[in-house]
Design brief:
280 residues, 8-stranded parallel beta sheet, TIM Barrel, globular, alpha/beta, 10 helices, 39% helix
């Protein structure tokens, strides 16, 4: 099974849920539904997807779960809840009663406190996720990686997937600290990284040549068994679109053998997200 492990749906009528999305973001500012994504998946022979939250609301997570129930190609939902609330473990258990919930993603990149991940009140939420077989999707910037290492060490059985390679500053800054810190994350052998979102970080003038050092470093660190491809659709429309990123990723991974490519483009997502929840 080929899986797009990172995509979003939303409706503009719920604009209050998406304060980051304004009419200025013309490629994004319209409804995005399964009917929009289905032709893209079919064009590239992709069998299913993991839909990921884009709003810090439980209601969006409930809506995505309902949408997944009605959409055969959606294999799982990475949702959201407020980890710092005292009732977070109970809410996580309630949401996880739906087998389509495969993970949770606090939007760490949007939280002003860079040390938020280290707050002690998050520990019960992490423990609940670990117990229920849910993945912690880490939406972080490179500067958050040392804090994420602490979380991983405190919860060694927690499945952790780093979104978008931790958003390296491909187009605007030095990669020295990112290279060091993402390697440290990868040294924790149960961590996984999404090969997604990189064209957006690279900017409008992205190219395979500019992406290759970043992708090669992620391959060196995680290996093909701990990398997961995702489109980041429709955000990828800000940087060339689905087709261009899918084909570029195939080119960047051309040095892998067929089994390794199959792992990155689906097998690893199945193992990390679906098999942990008893899905076959």
């Amino acid at each position: 099974m080929k899986i797009d492990a990172h995509q979003h749906f939303w409706r503009i009528a719920r604009a209050a849920d998406y304060p980051w999305m304004t009419p200025d973001l013309a490629p994004l500012y319209r409804d995005r539904t399964p009917d929009d994504l289905a032709p893209l998946l079919a064009r590239h022979g992709i069998d299913g997807s993991i839909v990921v939250q884009a709003s810090p609301t439980v209601q969006e997570t409930r809506d995505l779960l309902a949408l997944a129930q009605a959409t055969p190609f959606v294999q799982g939902v990475v949702g959201w809840c407020e980890f710092t609330e005292p009732d977070a473990p109970a809410l996580i258990a309630e949401l996880a009663a739906d087998p389509l919930l495969v993970g949770l993603r606090p939007m760490v990149q949007d939280i002003a406190d860079d040390d938020w991940l280290l707050r002690p009140e998050l520990q019960p939420a992490f423990a609940a996720m670990q117990q229920l077989g849910l993945v912690f999707d880490a939406l972080v910037f490179a500067r958050h990686l040392p804090r994420l290492s602490v979380v991983i060490d405190h919860h060694p059985a927690l499945a952790v997937v780093v979104d978008h390679g931790a958003k390296p500053a491909i187009g605007s800054g030095s990669l020295v600290a990112w290279r060091r810190d993402i390697a440290a994350i990868a040294s924790r052998e149960h961590t996984v990284c999404k090969l997604s979102g990189l064209v957006t970080e690279c900017g409008g003038d992205w190219s395979i040549e500019r992406l290759r050092p970043v992708v090669d470093h992620l391959l060196d660190c995680f290996g093909p068994q701990r990398l997961i491809w995702g489109s980041d659709w429709p955000v990828v429309d800000m940087a060339g679109g689905y087709d261009a990123w899918h084909e570029s990723a195939r080119t960047l991974l051309a040095g892998l053998d067929a089994a390794q490519r199959d792992a990155v483009f689906g097998g690893n997502a199945h193992r990390i997200y679906l098999a942990r929840r008893g899905r076959r």
